[in-house]
Write a structure and sequence with these properties.
single chain; binds adenosine-5'-diphosphate; six-stranded antiparallel sheet; 689 residues; 19 helices; five-stranded mixed sheet; alpha+beta
Length: 689
């Protein structure tokens, strides 16, 4: 509320039109000059204070925003000063001296102040002292002019006017001038609604105590007629104000105390009375100036200190925040980052790097220890001299070097490595990217290409050969029939591959028309077909089927799924007549869904491939010699399971063989939400046979 009010007032002040500001300054100058002319010792014309010098200076400083404003400020000040001095009974010559002296003095003070400080503000002790120097030089020149005026006028001793003018003008200009500049800065800060410094670090109780103690001490020192020379006992309150209040408030306090001092001195009280009028004037003003300067210098240096500390905290916080952000980004990166010192000591390693390069047994500060064999992609061991880290520590940059890491647990990681030296021989940074998946993908893709080439191109070549033979009208009937049979076989294989590709690409998008299915029916149909197709020469397979639980699924998809799994169990099963295939269902206790499992006692799947067999075109090494295939069957199964909101998993069974398990809905409300499905829709689906 209070802050909002202050901000509104500050906003209005800064929005005032120049005309109003000039008028305000003119009134202030008139009041200050009038005050100066009236606060004198009863027996002399000597003014104790001359606040008009500061108002004049501040007006000129404000006018600097444009030539016009500056000219108006100077001209109007001449008129105001002339008016007040003449109206208060000063002779024409002396009034002219005062007006000229003040104008020249203001011009010089403004010019010097702007030359000495970087910007017209009092933010540091140095700024305050520079203003003091500018005031001293400018007021000396002003005093010389009044000396000239007094000499012409002859009313006062020219020498007796120099020092009092210098003191009262320099004190006013420095004290009230610095306060005015600080207040103006505070107004513009508030108007811009920026963070303001407030009164101080003091609470209301301390502020009130300071005011009370100041009143009491000043009353005791300057308010009595005892004339005891104990002015110094007022000094602690200025130290208190300087150390605890913000500079503006400390200056205001100093000025208020100066007001008391002047008031009591003029009233014939306080320790300076004993000195006689002339000396009392200097003594009172000097005391006031020193006390004021003490507060101002202390407060300004405390402000500076607070600003520096706040800046330091801010810089610290910013540095911490950006370091945190950097660490976060680096730790979340998918690339591994490792930084080592020139002596190969580990400086930093992100989680990704630790994951790929090892379990992170090397701690920061310890020499980097390798826990893996490193080789080229062709399997050649990589010599130490070609190691990216070694090269980088010797100043050589490595870009995208492909290496294979073989970990002690048998895991093989394919990495692409960049390594570069740190500037100033401070070590090296190694960035690693795991390209295992890309490599596997590339391998699978080339396998697929060869499958396609083999299963599509070879049959076509065979077609051509057999067709050529069939063209021969003399071909014996039996050979003709054998050719036709081979042609049919080759075409069946091609159809199978093309169908698999289509099924796979459609299994993701196809609309599901689900219904309650009896698993036993589906399985027996597939087994019948399989056993009749296999023919008499193939060793028998023992099927065990126990499938009491129904599934809620798309019939075509479900048949495709079981067909693929049973087909694989036969393809990768035993060939010596002891093959067993088990098909069972159970209920998943956690979800209520039906689990269908198809197991065999065949070659099983290498552990490293248990996840990958579901990837497109992935074929395990151990099955390559046993059966041909496209590497798409299990990928199709996974898509079908997922499109029914389920999953497929495989494990090797003890004693040999693999067991696949699929989770499927048991009832309609277990279908995934958002999946397009309908009850009895028999929309187009690629035929499975
Ligand atoms: P394909 O059989 O055409 O190669 P799949 O996607 O059906 O493609 O299977 C992928 C790979 O998974 C097979 O090449 C094989 O190595 C392995 N696999 C699948 N089923 C079995 C199984 N029952 N026993 C052992 N390995 C299997």
């Amino acid at each position: 509320m209070y802050m909002g009010c202050m901000q509104a007032v500050a906003g209005r002040l800064t929005a005032l039109s120049p005309m109003w500001v000039h008028l305000g300054f003119a009134l202030l100058l008139a009041a200050a000059a009038f005050l100066g002319r009236t606060i004198t010792f009863e027996t002399s014309e000597l003014a104790l204070v001359w606040p008009a010098a500061a108002i004049h200076f501040l007006w000129a400083l404000w006018g600097l925003r444009s030539r016009r404003n500056f000219a108006v400020a100077l001209a109007a000040a001449v008129a105001v000063l002339a008016g007040v001095t003449l109206a208060t009974g000063l002779s024409g010559t002396l009034a002219a001296g005062v007006v000229l002296g003040s104008t020249v003095q203001t011009l010089i003070a403004t010019f010097l102040f702007l030359r000495l400080v970087r910007r017209p503000a009092i933010g540091t002790v140095g700024d305050y002292l520079r203003l003091g120097v500018a005031a001293l030089i400018a007021c000396s020149i002003g005093a010389l002019i009044i000396v000239g005026g007094s000499a012409v006028d002859g009313s006062a001793s020219p020498f007796a006017t120099f020092v009092p003018w210098l003191i009262r003008h320099a004190v006013s200009l420095t004290a009230i001038g610095s306060l005015g500049i600080v207040v103006a800065a505070a107004i513009s800060v508030r108007a811009a609604a920026r963070e303001s410094s407030g009164t101080s670090g003091t609470g209301p109780i301390e502020t009130a105590s300071l005011a009370l103690v100041s009143l009491v001490l000043y009353g005791m020192t300057f308010g009595t007629t005892s004339g005891l020379p104990i002015a110094y006992i007022a000094i602690p309150v200025h130290m208190w104000a300087g150390l605890r209040l913000r500079s503006g408030w400390a200056m205001l306090h100093g000025l208020a105390c100066g007001g008391f001092l002047i008031f009591f001195t003029v009233a014939g009280r306080g320790p300076f009375q004993e000195l006689g009028e002339g000396v009392a004037t200097y003594a009172a003003q000097s005391f006031m100036f020193i006390a004021f300067s003490l507060s101002a210098v202390l407060a300004l240096s405390m402000d500076e200190r607070r600003r520096l500390i706040a800046g330091l905290y801010r810089a610290n916080e910013e540095a911490e925040a950006s370091a945190e952000l950097r660490d976060l980004v680096i730790s979340r990166m998918n690339d591994g980052v490792l930084v080592a010192g020139p002596d190969r000591r580990l400086i930093f390693q992100n989680e990704t790097s630790a994951r790929w390069l090892g379990s992170g047994a090397t701690q920061p500060g310890e020499p980097w220890r390798r826990e893996y064999e490193i080789s080229t992609p062709d399997g050649e061991p990589l010599p130490e001299s070609a190691n990216p880290l070694t090269l980088a520590l010797r100043g050589i940059v490595t870009e995208r070097m492909d290496v294979d890491l073989l970990h002690s647990e048998g895991e093989r990681v394919h990495l692409s490595v960049d390594a570069m030296p740190l500037p100033g021989e401070r070590g090296a940074v190694v960035v690693t990217r795991n390209v295992t998946e890309e490599r596997v993908y590339q391998r699978d893709l080339s396998r697929f290409a060869s499958v396609v080439a083999h299963d599509l191109m070879t049959p076509l070549t065979v077609f051509d050969g057999w067709l050529e033979m069939l063209e021969d009208p003399d071909l014996p009937v039996l050979e003709r029939q054998a050719s036709v049979a081979r042609l049919q076989q080759a075409s069946a294989r091609m159809r199978n591959l093309i169908r698999n590709l289509l099924v796979y690409s459609l299994a993701k998008e196809e609309r599901i028309s689900a219904s309650q299915l009896d698993v036993a029916d589906a399985v027996s149909g597939i087994i019948d077909l399989r056993t009749t197709l296999r023919g008499a020469k193939v060793p028998a397979v023992h099927f065990q089927v126990h499938t009491p639980h129904p599934v809620y699924a798309d019939e075509r998809m479900f048949l495709q799924l079981v067909e693929n799994l049973v087909g694989n169990a036969l393809k990768y099963g035993r060939t010596d007549g002891t093959a067993e295939v088990t098909i069972e269902t159970s209920v998943d206790e956690a979800t209520g869904r039906t689990l269908v499992s198809v197991g065999d006692n065949g070659i099983g799947i290498p552990d490293a491939d248990l996840e990958r067999v579901f990837d497109e075109f992935h074929r395990s090494e151990n099955g390559l010699g046993q059966a041909s295939g496209t590497g798409l069957g299990l990928a199709i199964c996974r898509r079908i399971a997922e499109s029914h909101g389920g999953w497929i998993a495989v494990r090797n069974v003890p004693g040999g063989g693999a067991e696949f398990t699929i989770s499927l809905p048991a009832e309609p409300d277990q279908m995934p939400t958002g999946r397009r499905h309908s009850e009895a829709d028999t929309s187009s689906m690629v035929p499975t046979r």
